[in-house]
C-alpha cells in the first residue's frame, strides 16, 4: 500500500493540538504501507507525537517527535511538556510568517520605486542614505561630482549647497520624528555642463506611520531628485496610452521632448502643414487645446514617471 497515513491527518487535524501515535487513524496498519517501510522503518520511527502548527491556503506546517521501537511510547509527562511548549512553537511560526510577509512587501515596494524616472532617496537626519532608487543613483552619478553619495551621507561640491541641504534634511527628519514643524524645501545644484539637479526635501507624512513611530532614531526625510529635460517619451507608449496613430504619437512625443512644431516636422521629415494636421488630431484625442497644454499633459502624465526599456538598460547593474 502506497499510503501516507499522516497526509490526511495534517489536512484535517486541528491546529495547535498534540496527537500521539494511537490517536492517528490507521496507525495500526502503518506497517503495511510503503511510507512506513521506505521512510519510517529505516530511521527507526516507531512512535510519533506532534501537531499541526499552521495551516492556510498556501501551506501546512507541522512538527513531530519520534521514538524508536525499543523505547516506550510517549508518556503523560512528555505529552504535558509538549502541550506547554506548543503555544510558543505556534507563535514562533506565526511571527516568522509575518516577518516573511513584511519582507516581501518591502521588496515589492522597493521594486516599484525603482521603476520611477524620479530619483527617490530616503535619508536619516545626517543625510546618510537609508534607501536609494536606481534613478537617484543614476542622476547623482551623472552630475559629475556636483552631488555625491556615500555611506557617510550626501556631499555637494559647493559648501553653501551642502549647508543648505543638511539643514533641509535635518529639519524634515525632525518633523518625521514628530519633533518639528518643517515642511521641507527645494534647492537646485548646478552641474559642470550647465544643467542642474532639482532636489525636493520633505518629511514623511505621519498619517502613514505607526503611532509609536516617534523616536529620534527614526528621524528621516525623503529627497526627490530630478533633472529638467531628462524625460524622453517613447512614441509607442504615447500611441498606446492616448490612442494615437504612430504618426500622431511620433509628433506628440517629439514636441514633449522639447522640439517646436517646425523642428519636430523637420526631424520627422514631414511638412509643417502635415504636422499641424496631425497636431489637430492629437488635440481631439487627448482633449488638449493648445500645444503647451499637450506638452504639459504628456510630461505630467504617468508615462513621464515610468521608466522605459532604454532607462532600464541604462540603469541595470553591469
Keywords:
alpha+beta, Beta-Lactamase, Arc Repressor Mutant, subunit A, five-stranded antiparallel β-sheet, three-stranded antiparallel β-sheet, 10 strands, 44% helix, elongated
List the helices and strands and how they pair.
Layout: H1 5-12, E1 19-20, H2 34-40, E2 47-55, E3 60-67, H3 76-114, E4 119-124, E5 129-132, H4 134-142, E6 147-150, E7 153-156, H5 159-176, E8 185-190, E9 196-203, E10 220-226, H6 235-242, H7 246-256, H8 261-268, H9 272-286, H10 291-300, H11 309-315
Antiparallel strand pairs: 1-2, 2-3, 4-5, 4-10, 6-7, 8-9, 9-10
Helix pairs in contact: 6-7, 7-8, 7-9, 7-10, 8-9
Separation, N- and C-terminal Cα atoms: 55 Å
Spans of at least 5 consecutive residues with low confidence: none
What is the CATH T-level topology of the largest domain? Beta-Lactamase
CATH architecture of the largest domain: 2-Layer Sandwich
Report the count of strand segments. Answer: 10
Whole-number radius of gyration?
32 Å
**How would the global form be characterised?**
elongated
Order of strands across the biggest sheet? Answer: 5-4-10-9-8
The CATH superfamily name of the largest domain is: PAS domain
Please, how many domains?
Answer: 3
